[in-house]
Structures are given as C-alpha cells and as structure tokens.
Amino acid sequence: MFEITVEAHFSSGHYLRNYHGRCENPHGHNYRACVTLAGEELEENGLLLDFKQLKEIIQPIVDSLDHQMINEIPPFTDLNPSAENLARHFFDVIEDRVIKATARRVTVRRCTVYETDRSSATYGR
C-alpha cells in the first residue's frame, strides 16, 4: 500500500458550543491540516497522485475556512467546530473529490487537524 501526505495551513476563529470552559468563548487558531491518501496502484509515471493535484483538491476547503469564524460556515452552523469535526469534514469533502479524480484507485486514509503544535484530532477509515 502506498501513501502520500500533504499539509495545508489556515487561520480561523471558532468557539465550542455545549462546552464549559475557556473554549466556549470566541478564539482563534493557526490550524494545520494533514491529508493522507492511500492506494495499491501507482500511475504510469510512478505517482500515487501528484502532490500538486492533491494540494489543488485541498485548497478550496482551506480557502473557505481561512480567516473566517468557522461557526458561521456550513456545516459548522449546526455542527460543533471541534478539531474532531474539522478532521471529518476535511475527510468527507476530500474523499469525494479524490474518488472522482482517480476513479476509485486512491482513497483518503486519514485527515489530521492540528489546533496547536501539540494538539490534534484525526479522522480516518
């Protein structure tokens, strides 16, 4: 099984609903999102997927969140914008795009969202 990983960065604000503590108040993070793809077969050129193409798949999600209040962006108007839910959001959106781009040859293995250098949440299958 081959894997590739690309990292993206964005800065956003959020607050946690149904939470009692400092994070229930609006605050911000310099997020880091790491997306890992997996597949058993390489393209003829020896790549699982071009890093550039994966970055292009990720960038619209990053652009939609960068310098925004995440709580005001669907699906986070209803869904708590925790690192866990952000990781799953990245996974779900990217998985659909990767499957279409590779005719199911490549899948998303996991997405990890870091709120800080030492705090992260991962969603994968």
Blueprint of the fold:
Elements: E1 2-14, E2 27-39, H1 51-65, H2 83-102, E3 107-116, E4 119-124
Antiparallel strand pairs: 1-2, 2-3, 3-4
Helix pairs in contact: 1-2
Question: How is this structure best described in words?
Answer:
With 125 residues, the chain is of the alpha+beta class. It is built from two helices and four strands. Strands 1-2-3-4 form a four-stranded antiparallel beta sheet, covered by helices on one side. Helix 1 (51-65) packs across helix 2 (83-102). The longest helix is centred in the C-terminal third of the chain and has 20 residues, at 83-102. It is elongated, with a radius of gyration of 15 Å. The mean pLDDT is 97.
Q: Can you identify the CATH class?
A: Alpha Beta
Low-confidence stretches: none
Indicate the CATH architecture.
Answer: 2-Layer Sandwich
Distinct helical segment count: 2
Order of helices and strands: EEHHEE
Strand order of the largest sheet: 1-2-3-4
Gyration radius, rounded? 15 Å
Give the DSSP E fraction (strand runs of 2 or more residues): 25-35%
CATH topology, what is it called? Tetrahydropterin Synthase, Chain A
N-to-C terminal Cα separation, in Å? 14 Å
